[in-house]
Amino acid sequence: MDIKTREFGKLPTGETVEEFSLTNSRGLTLKLITYGATITELHVPDRHGVMADVVLGFNDLAGYLGNHPYFGCTAGRVSGRITGGKFTLDGRNYQLALNDPPNHLHGGARGFDKRVWQAKVINPKDAIGVMLSYRSLDGEEGFPGNVDATVAYYLTEQNEFSICYDAATDRATPFSLTNHSYFNLAGEGNGTIENHLLQISSSEISETDNQMTLLGKRSPVKGKANDFNQPKRLGDAILGLLNSHGDNYLLANANRKASETVARLEDPASGRVMEVLTTQDCLQLYTAAVLNGSLIGKSDRPYPKFGGVCLECQGYPDGANHPELGNIILRPGEFYQQTTVYGFKTQ
Q1: Is the whole-model pTM more than 0.85?
Q2: Distance, CA of 32 to chain centre
Q3: Taken in order 110, 111, 113, 118, is the CA torsion positive or negative?
Q4: What are phi and psi of 142, to 5 degrees?
Q5: Phi, psi of 325 (to 5 degrees)
Q6: Where are the alpha helices (DSSP H) in 220-281?
Q7: Number of C-beta neighbours around residue 89 at 10 A
């Protein structure tokens, strides 16, 4: 296994953004950059051994500095939507930016996805990896407390890559991270994900309204378009989803080791299969409904509506207001530790 490093670009401030390329002996390659702790490429073999990059993104830093829907980034200090951008914690009221009106989304106007993380190569047994670190200061984007966060990416010979999140704070604060990669197992820029088969092991979602505002309620999925307990072609389900968007699934087997598959995505044409395992409480399905062909990806082809699918493992985003659906408050002396694993094979 091998890790290579190069300069990916410079910010307008002159700050350097590094790229790390991790490759195992079977050819699977994961690339990430220190801007936003972002996954930029993921090359995976099909049933004939032909490699394809299966995540949406850009060839250069300019693309990631422009307007895009969080391709591949680490979203936080809280991933997902905080209803009304408001919460009360230890008797104090907080109002955050409504950067996705009427809600707060993915940490605000300049969340973790728009920060440069510090990186170092790590070499645990039977894997290669990169650990990225960031200190989020008290008051950043309206959140309380200084938070020291790390995101470690590991690649194994079993064609798995894992994301391990760790954090600590000096003051109580909401905290929940996710990776926001858009997957297309046919290869990025190669049409839509409508022929992909998706399975999600969950019997409930957290309800939202038409503006995707979380309502603090559970809703069963049995027999509905958003029921993916059995493999289902995404194209047969999308129009039945709220706003064709996708839901936040509540995982009944959360808070355990990441040893059980909570989601499975398959592209029958290429034979590529991705399995998702996580310790997180929730899995957000997002169908890339916002894409409209205006963004040009790495293969110089436009990304169409439904050109990828996100399977974002996270805490309950509005947990500061509804801890009964998932408590996301991190307090001094506690340690935030979560793991998500994406494994690849062929069918």
Answers
A1: yes
A2: 13
A3: positive
A4: 90, 0
A5: -100, 0
A6: 234-237
A7: 18
Question: Is the per-residue pLDDT at 253 higher than 80?
Answer: no
Q: Give the tens place of pLDDT for each residue, 305-333.
A: 999 999 999 999 999 999 999 999 999 99
Task: Return the residue matching tokens 């690649």.
Answer: 155
- 198-213 confidence digits (pLDDT tens): 999 999 999 999 999 9
The encoded tokens of residue 170 equal 């000096």
Helices H / strands E in the chain, number of each: 2, 27
Q: Output the six-digit token pair for 227.
A: 């029921």
- Tell me, which fold does domain 2-346 have in CATH? Beta-galactosidase; Chain A, domain 5 (2.70.98)
pLDDT band at 85 (very low <50, low <70, confident <90, very high): very high
β 204-208/248-250 pair status: antiparallel
Distance between CA 65 and CA 303 in Å, rounded?
A: 17
- Could you list the active site residues? 180, 312
**Angle, alpha carbons 112-265-273 (nearest 5°):** 110
Closest CA to 237 of 221, 218, 215: 221
Contact 293, 304 (CB under 8 A): yes
The token duo for 205 is: 């979602």
Residues contacting residue 301 through CB under 8 Å, at least 6 positions apart: 189, 190
Give Cα separations from 69 to 58, 73, 108, 153, 240 (angstroms).
12, 10, 13, 22, 22
